[in-house]
UniProtKB/TrEMBL annotation:
The chain crosses the membrane at residues 20-41. It comes from the Bacteria. Keywords: Membrane, Transmembrane, Transmembrane helix. The keyword Membrane applies. InterPro entries: DUF6090. This is Uncharacterized protein.
Length: 244
């Protein structure tokens, strides 16, 4: 009997031990499942925050690109007006009375203090270069935008440096050779003899050179960049609409 009691006691103990092991394993599984669920929720919340942050960034980029397009349009419009005066000054025929009035008002400033440049600010590039984008479609598009901004900054900077150097050279020439220079800078009226320089071949050559470096290079770069920005705006707005 003792043998059977011992065997029974041993069997009961083994059964209890197995139940304990199964219970412990079940507890561990529940803990692991709880941890996995918590991690999943945390990752989901983080992903949601990241997506919202990236969407906010994309919207900011769209708005900045629109502002940059407006600024580019202002410069292009001003350059279109200047181009008309270039043509008036460089044409072979005698100008009409109306054209003479335009030339009288604007010709002295064509290659001195009357030129407008964009001075594009690197806001978009700064935003994009300091942000990690995880959404692949958005990342590809923003990478293209950043690349185009970097290229535009480079190309426009080169043109602007050439233009500024030319403008300063023209101003220095007038400063060193004409005693009415202070009138030009100060907005004073030039008399007929003083104004004669702006009808000379020497001045026309300077205007022709400015037209070359401004209209054939700078204007072209601005127009190309504006076209790229409008394309990016359209694509980015479409992508944001699809995510709604």
């Amino acid at each position: 009997m003792r043998f059977f009691n011992k065997a029974r006691s041993k069997t009961v103990s083994n059964s209890r031990f197995k139940k304990y092991i199964l219970y412990a394993i079940g507890e561990i599984i529940l803990v692991v499942i709880g941890i996995l669920i918590a991690l999943w929720i945390n990752n989901w919340n983080q992903t949601k925050k990241d997506n919202e942050r990236q969407r906010y960034l994309a919207q900011n980029v769209v708005e900045q690109m629109k502002r940059d397009v407006v600024e580019i349009d202002k410069v292009l419009e001003k350059m279109d007006e200047q181009e008309q005066i270039y043509e008036l000054l460089l044409m072979d025929r005698e100008p009409t009375l109306e054209e003479k009035v335009i030339l009288l008002n604007d010709a002295p400033f064509l290659v001195t203090v009357g030129f407008t440049i964009l001075n594009l600010e690197p806001k978009v590039v700064n935003q994009l270069s300091n942000t990690t984008i995880t959404q692949q479609g958005l990342k590809d598009l923003l990478d293209d935008i950043e690349s185009d901004y970097n290229s535009a900054h480079e190309e426009l900077k080169i043109s602007e440096e050439v233009i500024v150097k030319e403008l300063l050279g023209n101003l220095e020439y007038l400063r060193d050779n004409y005693d009415w220079y202070h009138k030009l800078i100060g907005g004073g009226d030039l008399d007929v003899s003083e104004y004669a320089y702006f009808r000379s071949t020497h001045y026309k050559n300077r205007v022709a050179h400015m037209e070359l470096i401004a209209m054939d290079s700078y204007y072209s770069n601005l127009y190309t960049f504006k076209f790229a920005l409008n394309s990016h705006i359209e694509k980015l707005e479409l992508l944001l609409e699809e995510e709604n």
